[in-house]
């Protein structure tokens, strides 16, 4: 895999709970494009989603997303159709990829869009390799790298913070070594 010309989309989701198999739903999806090892700040995707259910008060407390926030927002089918088009065939960069992919693929299949077939990089794996520590949640990673996140626990804010962490870690370990973290 060649490093030159790689295009990435760093994504994040906000959800009504932690397990899609127990009824949790998508609330928000965001993606930030990285081209030529730079964040393309004007090329992003960010959309709230009407989950079709009550937003738990614990999720509102964490994200600030309430029932009123999502009232009248587009349904998951429309948002994912647009989001899947936005990511195209880019390499995805995700902090804790199994979590976000479980939601995107579950609802993608449910909406007739299928699963994302993109290759991806999980920044948790990069963090473990670089720092050799067992705790690698996003807050800890950002603190290690000296990155201050805007709008933490909102999809676009977390995608942007993850993008900055990804680029910083790529620089520290050498951009050519990033390919060893690409998964299918």
Number of helical segments? Answer: 7
Query: How much helix is in the residues?
Result: 25-40%
Number of strands: 6
Could you say which structural class the secondary elements and strand pairing correspond to?
alpha/beta
In one word, what is the shape?
A: globular
What are the low-pLDDT stretches, counting only 5+ consecutive residues below 50? Answer: none
Largest sheet: 6 strands, mixed
Strand order of the largest sheet: 3-2-1-4-5-6
**Series of H and E elements:** EEEHHHEHEHHHE
| Average predicted local confidence, pLDDT | 96
In percent terms, what proportion of residues is strand?
15-25%
What oligomeric state is this? single chain
- Cα distance spanning the termini: 13 Å
The radius of gyration over CA amounts to 16 Å
Q: How would you explain this protein's 3D organization?
A:
The chain is α/β, with parallel strands linked by helices and 184 residues long. It has 7 helices and 6 strands; from the N terminus they run βββαααβαβαααβ. Strands 3-2-1-4-5-6 form a 6-stranded mixed beta sheet, with helices on both faces. The model has no long low-confidence stretch (mean pLDDT 96).
